[in-house]
Model the fold of this input.
Amino acid sequence: MSTRALMATITITAVVLFIVVLFAGVAILRWQFMVLLPQNIVPQVLEGILSLLTYQAIGLGIAAIVIAAVAYWLQSTSIAAPLSAIVANMAAFAESGQRQPMPDTSGKPVEMQQLTQVLIASMDKIELSHKKDEEVSRVKSDFISTAAHQLRTPLTGIRWALEALERDAQLSQEQQALVKSAVEKSHDLVAIVGTLLDISAIESGKYNYQFAPMDLGALAQEVANDFTPLAAQSQVSLVFAPSETPLPQINADRDRIKWILNNLIENAIRYTPAGGNVTVSANRGANQVQVRVRDTGIGIPEQERGNIFERFYRAGNAITKENAGNGLGLYIARTIATDHGGDLDFQPNAEGPGTTFILSFPVPA
Ligand code: ADP
Done:
């Protein structure tokens, strides 16, 4: 019940009780007059006295109603109205993080003034801690970005040198195997540094998207085809199921979306044991175009489902199945999807083991 409704209920109940008591009192007085006054009193005088009593009661009743209305109005303007304004203010702050000016409570009850001061102090603290978090996050992103930039040049040099060495015919077989492994590792390192640069660009809002109309279904099919060799090597059946109806184009950065699809399909194959299936499908949802990547793999343990979009997070069963991995792919993928106004989510398969990742984008109006 709102404060206003509560105050109205109390006021109306008090007025009704007052009027009932008043008229009961008048009724008793009338009875007492009838009994106590001498029987030979002129009837008009008796009638006059009794009417006077009734009129006075009606007058008092009206006065009580007017006083109660004024009291209600005073309480409403000094308690209910500022309380409603404060609640609306705090709700807007909780929703958007933006502060609105608090209502002026000077001249209002002391508790109302104290409440306003406590809330203003709390908002100050929340804003301060938010600013500190942003600063820490900025310093962290700057550090990652600087470190990644510093690492990229020497790493690329090392990779070229190793690739040149790999082509040297004079190496023994053992040496060739070592150099080949070093080349592969240097590729991995360059890719990790690239990912770190992507992350710092995402976090600083400097990720440069090139939006253009594109066919999501065709791209999903192309990426699924690219993964046929990896699927065959992992003994996982990889199928693309096209949409039954033509899909509308979306407005997106094709390279970035390809990056997401690469990640999802590669994960699905990596986290599915031999003999399993991966199905990539494209379809249309309500005002959306979706790509689903469904696997019959190891699944995501229930207690870890809330964390897998966190940076560097890897579920325990994934670490056991696949040593390699950095836990950054899904974080970047979801950020790219939301930067496009879309979303990336997943659900455990309803029947049987495995997971389905759902990438969705809005259809332009
Ligand atoms: P990475 O695969 O390099 O560890 P990602 O960010 O791509 O990093 O994925 C984060 C985590 O999400 C994985 O470590 C794994 O625990 C979980 N995960 C992602 N895709 C799947 C999948 N298809 N099946 C099961 N777990 C998955």
Notes: The chain has a mean pLDDT of 89. Residues 3-103 form one domain.
